[in-house]
Amino acid sequence: MTDRLSRLARSWDEAAEGYEQYFVPRFAPWVQAAVDAVHTIPFGMVVVPCCGTFPELELLAPWFPDRRIVGIDLSAEMVRLANLRAASLRAASLRAASLRAASLRADGVRAGGVRADGPGAGGLGADGVRADGLGAGGLGADGVRADGLGADGIAADGVGAGGLGAGGLGAGGHGADGLGSDGGSLVEVVQGDAAALDPAWGAAAVVSVFGLQQLPDPPAAIRSWYDALRPGGRLCVVYWPEFAEETGPFALLDEVIDGRRDRSWEDALIPALDGAVIERDELRSYPMVHPSAAAYFDAADRSGPLRATALARGDEYIAELRANYLAKAPAGEWVHHPQARLISARKPLSRAEAAPPTS
Ligand SMILES: C[S@@+](CC[C@H](N)C(=O)[O-])C[C@H]1O[C@@H](n2cnc3c(N)ncnc32)[C@H](O)[C@@H]1O
Question: Which Gene Ontology terms cover its molecular function (predicted)?
């Protein structure tokens, strides 16, 4: 691994827990938009370069319950949290499957006439299982509801405590259909450099959110992700462009850092997808709320992209930057509407489909 890459990996190792807490909920609408763009795909696996803690998985797994879903990330700590997320989903799915089986058994008993004869209130209630002891913490009126998988559901399986935590994955409930019809062992998280994928992946979809802008050669990366698709497969990439907003916490950070970045690569992304059917190339904006300018700055420093700068330039530089930032920032809660670029493309089924129209 080059020095640059190992420093980047270390910065995301340090950021990972805080990233999950602070940024994952705030970035959720863009993750949703990326996953929505690959709903219709041929048979095959889904690959997620730069998956971080793998928030994409929660949306992909219910949609593609019987597929291999592979996340790739450079950072060992991100991979650890992504594996916890996968394990939580798997536990939720297994629990849902067993509850479903219990409900079916109960239905069988009812259908066989037992209920009419007597287990009544003490046995199988109107909703099949609930009255019989799975009780308040377990099932809703229909017997197997997703939100039956509450905080204690995940924690009881020993998955919650390690980091993504009861508040994160547990309490929200992932939906009973988390992974695979068998409770699924179809998810993998691989630690590695996702900047170039082997075309042999032959993926049905490649989805990547907020990773592209960190790679050394984004046009080459997006091309390799596209090349890793099978015919008919879909790619969706979302990244933060140079101008994510005119004013706001992101713009102010750029201003105080005053690091002129070469973003000429942004113009090279669509040309790099030569031969693809470009389905969308648009800016997506959603509201984002920060409790204060200091809260955002500290999250970016400890749990976000500023971590790599902090490692490279040291604490004194960050302290000075923070003072400049706060001197220029508004007081109180800060709401903004940053825009990220979403590119989605489909690999044509044949050369003829790929050829541009002649007239
Ligand atoms: C901002 S996070 C995004 C994570 C996730 N996709 C999301 O939307 O929350 C960017 C991730 O890209 C990863 N990353 C950066 N460069 C990478 C590379 N060359 N190969 C694989 N992962 C990389 C980082 O480790 C980090 O976890």
Answer: methyltransferase activity
